[in-house]
Design brief:
InterPro entries: Homeodomain-like_sf, HTH-type_TetR-like_transc_reg, HTH_TetR, Tet_transcr_reg_TetR-rel_C_sf, TetR_C. GO terms for molecular function: DNA-binding transcription factor activity; transcription cis-regulatory region binding. It comes from Microbacterium faecale. This is HTH tetR-type domain-containing protein. By secondary structure, the protein is mostly helical. It has 2 domains: 67 residues, Homeodomain-like (Arc Repressor Mutant, subunit A), CATH 1.10.10; 154 residues, Tetracycline Repressor, domain 2 (Orthogonal Bundle). α6 runs antiparallel to α9 and α6 crosses α11.
Length: 230
């Protein structure tokens, strides 16, 4: 984000946060309606009731503006913590999905393409869309390891990258989100390699379902049928 103009800095004029909000809201509206290809600073200025110079004083170009707008829409994700590792990992897919479900996939694909060749932009894309979810799910994995559910030598970063990459791949390259059945299959595959005792995790999940009202997050991994993916 660019700094206010030198004249504003000299006079101590405060930045107009209402205008900031209007610009970001206008940007999101265009992204939602038409995608990134149709986003222009002129179009944003007209919709926000301001001028192109006012936008340039805040953001240097449309990709920085788009990332700022997306970041303004996303709330800090919560770390799944149900006490059931199977359920927590299922919720972890949803944590990564939040950003993708709030921004149309073609817009995200176009923004990523523009960011890919520039390290600073690539880092900002990751910081906006990936890293908050990655940190939240990382805390979930740490708790599962502390409970003794995951092997202490399980590669934490690889687990995080696998969960995040699946969500990213489906949203950007399959033009759809990962389904519950696909997420359950992925969780089963991951945990059979990373869990200390996978069958014990299944038994714990079963016990929770018998003693507590069913929750949306309690997908029945222990009854997973691969034919549901066909």
């Amino acid at each position: 984000m660019s700094t206010p103009s030198s004249s504003a800095a000299q006079t101590g004029r405060p930045r107009d946060r209402h205008l900031d909000h209007a610009i970001l809201a206008a940007t999101l509206a265009i992204l939602d309606e038409s995608g990134y290809q149709e986003l222009s600073l002129g179009g944003v200025a007209r919709r926000a009731g301001t001028s192109r110079p006012a936008i340039y004083r805040r953001w240097p170009d449309r990709v920085h503006l788009a990332l700022a707008a997306i970041g303004s829409r996303l709330e800090a994700p919560l770390s799944p913590d149900t006490g059931c590792t199977l359920c927590d990992l299922d919720e972890s897919f949803k944590v990564f999905l939040v950003a993708y479900r709030q921004i149309r996939p073609d817009a995200l694909s176009a923004i990523l393409a523009e960011c890919a060749a520039t390290p600073e932009l690539r880092a900002q894309y990751l910081d906006t869309l990936i890293e908050p979810a990655r940190r939240a799910v990382g805390h979930t994995l740490d708790r599962a390891t502390a409970r003794g559910d995951l092997r202490p030598d399980a590669d934490r970063n690889l687990l995080l990258d696998t969960v995040g990459s699946l969500v990213h791949y489906f949203a950007l390259f399959c033009d759809r989100h990962i389904t519950d059945a696909e997420a359950e299959h992925a969780i089963e595959t991951l945990l059979r390699g990373a869990a200390v005792d996978y069958e014990a995790l299944v038994a714990h999940s079963l016990a929770l379902e018998e003693t507590e009202p069913p929750k949306e997050s309690h997908h029945r991994h222990h009854t997973f049928d691969p034919s549901t993916l066909e």
